[in-house]
Design brief:
Length: 328
Amino acid sequence: MIHRIALVLLIVTALVSTAAAHDFSTSYSHVAVQDKTVHVRLTLNLKDFHNADIRKVVEENYHVEAPDPPSIMTVQSSDMIAEDVIFLNLRYVFDHPLTKLKITSTLERVTQPDHSHIVQIGEGEDTREAVLNAANPSVDAELGEKAFFQTSWDFVKLGVEHIFTGYDHLAFLAGLLIMTTTLRSLLKVITAFTVAHSITLALATFGLVAIPSRLIESLIALSITYIAIENFTGKTLVHRWKITFLFGLIHGFGFSNVLKEMALTRRTLAIGLFSFNGGVELGQLAFVCVVFPLAYYLSTSRWKAPFLSTSSTAIAALGFFWFVQRAF
């Protein structure tokens, strides 16, 4: 299906475009793996490339690795299938049977900055799909299915790692914990955040809802600033768990970017979604167990005023910095 959609888009663009710049720029590749060999059918709109040497462009800006470079790369044939739309059949030979594959596209360097390259690896139930662009130029794919528990464990570790390297999510959690002074309120806040981000993580990962990542990342930064300002003023417009649920929906879209950038089979995607979310929760729980007692102690001690003002100012500054960096 994605092959036909991409092909239709390319042909329509070629037929209706003039010498002016395209409203969008897209290319497509279908990747098939046979033992030590990778066959790629690359579909391009020649008007995107401004009369450049297509073979040279492909050799310099479309790479298949496993994870080492191939020993042989050849352009076996090319076919014009419509005005300015071309198929290139590429062959990559490696020195060993393939278990991993890395596809990289930097075609936007030659076409236009918003160029998107759609990759499909495999067929049927083993299909993996990804969209490559300037922000996400490469995708890694595991070939062959791992055992269920191995796959689950890999994604649990990925979820934990994402939490502890996702400093914006940690800043948001820290902002929530600073003004949480009872176990009951802690349970309500953490449950609201967990339920909310689990909903949007699933919706976005399965492609049911799509929001531009730049908007999501900017809103995440604003959520951090908002929570910090509430902490600083000591006033909340609505119950903290309700605003946490709202912002949790936004953070869930941020979590989904990790899975969306990976080329996963439908089976692996389902396992990965559940396991990755579990890893996120484990990482979040570990962070809460460390930070909450400390925040509770400081917020109920004689250092309460300087602690709240200093921590809230620092978190607000971080959120504002990330917002400016991401939005502009």
